[in-house]
Structures are given as C-alpha cells and as structure tokens.
Design goal:
Layout (H helix, E strand, L loop, with lengths): L2 E2 L3 H7 L22 E4 L2 E4 L6 E8 L2 E10 L2 E10 L3 E10 L8 E5 L1 E5 L9 H5 L13 E6 L14 E5 L4 E8 L5 E9 L2 E8 L3 E9 L2 E8 L3 E2 L6 E3 L2 E8 L2 H16 L13 E2 L10 H11 L7 E4 L33 H9 L3 E6 L3 E2 L4 H5 L4 E2 L7 E3 L4 H18 L3 E4 L5 H5 L6 E2 L1 H20 L4 E4 L1 H4 L4 H4 L10 H7 L5 H13 L9 E2 L4 H7 L4 E3 L10 H18 L2 E6 L8 E8 L4 E8 L7 E4 L9 E7 L4 E8 H4 L2 E4 L5 E9 L7
Parallel strand pairs: 20-30, 21-22, 22-26, 26-28, 29-30
Antiparallel strand pairs: 1-4, 2-3, 2-8, 4-5, 5-6, 6-7, 7-18, 7-19, 8-17, 9-16, 10-11, 10-13, 12-15, 13-14, 14-19, 15-16, 17-27, 23-25, 24-25, 31-32, 32-33, 33-38, 34-37, 35-36, 35-38
C-alpha cells in the first residue's frame, strides 16, 4: 500500500486528465485537500487546500477507494471514501485528537464544504421550474433546490411524507434546513439544478443534521453536517462525521439522480451472501387484531398464506410478554423470558420452522433501542440505559461497548434460535435520554457515539448471521438516511397508509405511495409500505421492488386468485426495477392530476411505465414522453390495464417519446412493458 499524493485517482477527483486520457468534469470541484471546515477555539479553519497524504487502498469494478489525512492543531482529520464510475463521490470524515491533552472547543463542523462554479449554460429544464408552485419569471436562470420532506412516523394520515418542495436561490441568497435522519421536516437528500447541470447530494446520518446552500457571484456553495456541535475532544478520542455521497452532473436532472441511483444500487445497497441485490419481499402480515396469539399465527403461516405466492412470513410486535407496547424492553437472558407463553404456548421457534417448511423467509419484530419503565432490562441492567432524570426507562446506551456487546449477543441468540431471516427493528433512539447525559462543553459527542453504536449494533448481528436482512422501520420510515439504507431496506416506510385504511379512505394511500416512489426512488429505491387492496391501481402504486399487502386473507370475500395475479406481476416487474428511473408526470400528491414514472434498462433496451389517473382527475387523456429510448428504433409494447395483457403494439421510440394515454376510469392505471424489436423485423 503506497502513500501517494497525485495519482490517477486524485487527478480524476480534481477533473484533470489521467495518463489514460480520461477526464471527469463531473467532479471538477473536488478540492485538493479535504472538503471540510470547522471552527477551532473560534478560529475558522478550512482544509480545502491543505496538504494531505493520500492512500489508494483498492480499485476494482469501477470503484476507487481512497484515504486522505491532514494534521491540524493536533487533530488528525481523515477522509475515507470511494469514487464510483468516475463521477460519484462517497466519503466520511473522522476527527482524532492525537495529543495528550484536551483540544480547544470545536464548533460548526461542516462534514462537507463544496464549492462549484457552474457555467449556467445549456437547456433550461422548464418542467422542473413549473413544478415549483412558487415559480416566478426569471427563476429558470437560477439554481433550484429540490427538497424532500421528512417522515414524522406514528402520527396520523398525511400525504406530505417524502413529498417534494422547492427553493429558488437568487444572488447572494442562502437557505438552511435541518432534520434528524428522515424523522423531522426534511430528509437529508438534495438535488440542486441550474441550466445545464447540477448536484445531487445525500447525507448519511441517523442523528441531527444541517444543510446550507448559498450562491454568490456565480459560485454555488454547499455545506452541512452535524446540527449539534460544540465540544472539546479528549486525548486519543476519535469521532466520525456524517457520510456524504454526491454527484456533479452536466445535462438534465435525471442524468444526475440516475448516476446517484446507479451508484447506490451497484456499490452501496446491501446484498446477499452471493453478492446479489436483495429485493423487498412479497408478504401478507397477519392483521394486528388477529395476531395476538400463537394459534392464529400458526394457522396463518401454515394454511392462510398457501397458494398466494408470498415470499415471507411476517410476525410483528405481539409475541412479547405483555404484548405491545407493554412488552417492549424485556430483553434479558434467557431469551425465552421475553416470549409470552400464555398466548404462545408453543413458543416462537415453531413459527420460523413452519415458515421455512413452507418455503417462506421468516421476519420477526424487535425493539432493541427503547426500554419502558419497569421492563426487565431496566430492572436487571439499568447501567445499560440512558435516561432522563427521575426515570428508570430510556434508551440503550449504544455508546457503551458493554451494553452494545450484551445486546448483540442477545439478538444473535434470538436470530439463531428462532431461525430469523429478516430482523425487523422498530422504535428508535429517544433523544431526550441522550441529551440529558451529555458532559459539560461536549454537546454532540454522545450523539455521535450513540449513532456510531447503532451502526455497530446492526453490523454486529449481520456479521454473526451472514445473509441476514434488516428491515428498517423505526416508527415508519423515520430513519431512511443513506447510512442505514446501506445496511437495510424498509418494508414499512410510513404509517400514513395504514391510517388512511383505518379512516376508510382507500383512495389516498395509493396516492401517498405514488408520491413517495416519485421522490425517494431517485436516491434509495428499496422501500415499500402497507398496501391495503389488491386491485391493479393500488398494487402498482405500492410496488417498489416488492409488496406488502396489509389485509385479512381469511375473509370470505377475499379473492386469492386475484392476489396471486398481483404477486405474479410484482415478480415480473422486478427485472426493470434496477434500471434508470424517470418521472414522466409529477404533480406531487394532487388528487386532480395524473402520475407517471418509468424504469428503463438501457443495457437490455427494455423497461416499463406506470401511469395513474387519480380519483379526482377530470381528464381522460394525458401525455407521457418516455425517456432513454432511441427514436429510430422499434419497440414491442405490452399494455396491461388489469393483470391480463390487453394488447401488444409496435411503436417507434419517437412515438413513445410523445405518447398519449387514455384511461376512462378514475382512479385507473396502465402498465406498459416494452422491449426493443429484434433487428430482423426492421427489414
């Protein structure tokens, strides 16, 4: 492993030509040093131009792995990162106190501090501006920030979760936003575009973050990182900052977010033991009101799920002593103490055994981070719990190696004993418990260590159980940040879809699913949530590589044959899901509009298109212009209004790029699957 300063990797990052003649203008603004800034004892420090040592530790499959290190005031600032496909940068910065004394106070850390001077030339993406309800004449020549709303979880029905907002920046104007993973007003995913290009950026941090945007004299500035940061570091202490992944692109916004999306799928998303992408499974959980005893569950997995085509048996929170939520926190040895043997006289292991005999994966619910008053953990191991004054219950102290080791051992034994294939983790860190235990003049340090501990917890059980899948719930989609998504997927990305079902509004939750797909799929595509019907309109709205049908399959009028058709369609559509993603009609969650998006696999010249006419739309016809096609080629296009193929047409790429769809019913949907027509038919 050689220490170098100006190899091809560094040259590519800086946009210079390499010895092989390659040039990467997409990352031209990457600094020579480390793109970090902070204040040390009140003095502003930037490491952009700092002299650094760089180590290239690996290079394969279009991925370069590198390290850069700078020493400043006794602080070793290290950046570990990867460079994907010669255009996408993914890095994390670490601070280490190398002295024998406490550092001075460190504040205002920007885990990324990037400056771009774009040409502001090229075609204007008017559609992106017209989607902005605050658009005014002249905005098309200015940068537009595309923001994604957060998800507050466990609240009530709302269509705003993961929806899009816009902010146009004028000269010398700035904008700042904050969040906590994806659990507050904003999610840490951003697209900023301008005429001819832009930047797509994501923060991987499961705590509190900030993001800042500014333009002055043609220079776009991007900064962000820890929201809570005012601390000194102890001798030998090492702290990590939020993960940052971004791409600078030239062209249209979809060029940028598809470069990001492909890099995520190819290099970041979790994989199975064979190195294959793990799609969210097809599943039908037993409804809550009937899942309160073992016999109901045995009947569900042994009989009710038969002949549906499901891939997973899902058992949620009800197996704990005391049920849910009273049974949370009873995580002490021996593990059988946590099982409610009155309601589950045959235990939990039998459920996993039956699931495996039937060919299903087995998912089991856990809540290892929060501990209510008087749970067994609070009584037997209070030293492992962070809590506010006057309380016994609280949050697992994941900054403690001892507490972390205990919980990894406990969960590992459960996973192995019960045969768990998918570890469903719910609830999460209660931040008041963390803040109440911070040391004086060390704001943010305990948060960093608890978040690092969360990553170690998940990594620990995954390392001990190769092939284990983590389902990231946390109250319904509140922690879908890049760092946790690199270790998991989410089968319950929002609670709102269920709340709409409870309210009896079967028309809103498909719109919610469409909106989330349109927004989140540009970044991290492997998320689904409750789909509360099995008609084509609802199922296609809920499809996102997998499907969760949240219905009672035992009802006399339930049509299993129709459900099998829905599941068969989901399996067929997975072949397109890893392709490029295009938003064809995007009007947010407007019930009077249409919605349409496309998955295109350019390597195989095939793809699919989802078209939805929403329930209040008065328009029977809508224009959809497919993207990523060759206008001169011919395509065979299959049309599905229901689950059966309605017709196949031969259309040119040019025709599909300006195609009109008619849907007589509202709500209604159309699925189009296309593939290039073989060349022999051109003659």
């Amino acid at each position: 492993m050689a220490m170098i300063c100006n190899d091809d990797c560094l040259s590519m990052l800086e946009g210079r030509e390499t010895e092989g003649g390659e040039k990467n203008s997409h990352a031209a603004a990457f600094p020579k040093g480390i793109p970090v800034s902070f204040k040390y004892d009140g003095e502003e420090i930037s490491l952009h131009d700092a002299k650094c040592e760089e180590t290239v530790t690996g290079e394969e499959n279009n991925q370069k792995i590198f390290r850069r290190t700078v020493l400043e005031n006794g602080l070793a600032v290290e950046m570990k990162g990867s460079f994907y496909d010669n255009r996408v940068v993914d890095f994390t910065v670490y601070f280490e106190n190398t002295t024998g004394e406490n550092t001075k106070q460190i504040t205002d850390i920007n885990a990324y501090d990037l400056n771009f001077k774009p040409p502001f030339k090229g075609s204007v993406n008017m559609s992106a501006h017209l989607e902005n309800p605050k658009y005014v004449m002249g905005d098309e020549d200015r940068p537009v920030i595309h923001l994604m709303r957060g998800n507050e979880g466990c609240k009530f029905a709302t269509l705003e979760e993961m929806s899009e907002e816009f902010k146009t920046l004028k000269e010398d104007e700035s904008f700042e936003c904050t969040g906590c993973s994806c659990g507050e007003y904003y999610s840490p995913y951003f697209i900023t575009d301008w005429p001819g290009g832009g930047v797509c950026l994501a923060l991987g941090w499961s705590g509190f973050w900030k993001a800042y945007f500014h333009i002055k004299e043609g220079v776009m500035s991007f900064k962000g990182g820890l929201k809570r940061c005012n601390f000194y570091m102890k001798p030998g202490e090492k702290l990590r900052m939020p993960r940052v992944m971004y791409v600078y692109w030239e062209g249209e916004p979809e060029d940028g977010y598809n470069a990001f999306r492909r890099a995520y799928i190819n290099y970041v998303a979790p994989r199975d033991t064979d190195g294959k992408i793990m799609f969210p499974p097809i599943s039908s959980p037993c409804p809550d009101e009937n899942a309160t005893n073992g016999e109901n569950e045995i009947n569900w997995v042994q009989n009710v799920m038969d002949d549906t085509g499901a891939e997973m048996y899902w058992h949620d929170a009800w197996w704990h002593v005391g049920g849910f939520p009273a049974g949370q926190g009873n995580y002490t040895f021996p593990i059988e103490k946590n099982v409610d043997h009155e309601r589950y006289p045959k235990g939990v292991k039998i459920l996993g055994d039956i699931a495996h005999e039937k060919g299903y994966k087995f998912m089991l619910w856990f809540s290892p981070e929060f501990y209510p008053e008087n749970c067994t953990m609070a009584n037997e191991h209070p030293e492992y719990i962070l809590h506010e004054p006057g309380r016994k219950g609280g949050t697992l102290n994941m900054a403690s190696d001892e507490a972390l080791d205990y919980m990894i051992r406990y969960l590992d034994e459960c996973i192995k004993t019960y045969g768990v294939d998918i570890f469903r983790t719910d609830d999460g860190i209660h931040w008041g418990d963390v803040f109440a235990n911070e040391e004086e003049n060390r704001e943010g340090v305990l948060e960093i260590k608890v978040v690092e501990g969360l990553y170690k917890l998940w990594d620990g059980i995954r390392e001990r159980n190769p092939g284990l899948i983590v389902d990231n719930c946390c109250g319904g989609g509140t922690r879908l940040d890049l760092e946790l998504c690199s270790r998991s997927y989410s089968l319950w990305r929002t609670d709102s879809s269920v709340w709409y079902h409870v309210l009896g509004d079967m028309l809103r939750h498909p719109v919610l699913n469409q909106t989330i797909n349109m927004s989140l799929n540009r970044f991290v595509p492997f998320t689904v949530c409750a789909t509360c019907n099995y008609d084509p309109y609802t199922v296609r709205s809920g499809f996102n590589g997998g499907l969760t049908i949240n219905m009672d399959l035992r009802k006399p009028d339930f049509d299993k044959a129709e459900l099998r058709k829905a599941y068969a369609e989901v399996r067929r559509l997975r072949q397109y899901f890893l392709g490029d993603f295009y938003r064809l009609i995007n009007d947010g969650y407007d019930p009077y509009s249409w919605c349409s998006y496309q998955y295109n696999v350019p390597e195989e010249n095939k793809g699919c298109v989802f078209v939805f006419r929403r329930d209040n739309s008065p328009y029977p016809v809508a224009a959809i212009g497919l993207k990523g096609l060759d206008p001169k080629k011919k395509y065979e296009v299959d049309f599905y209004y229901g689950y059966e193929k309605a017709k196949t047409e031969i259309l040119s790429g040019a025709e599909l790029m300006s195609y009109n769809v008619t849907l007589e019913s509202a709500p209604g949907s159309l699925l189009m699957e296309y593939r290039e027509r073989p060349a022999r038919f051109y003659r």
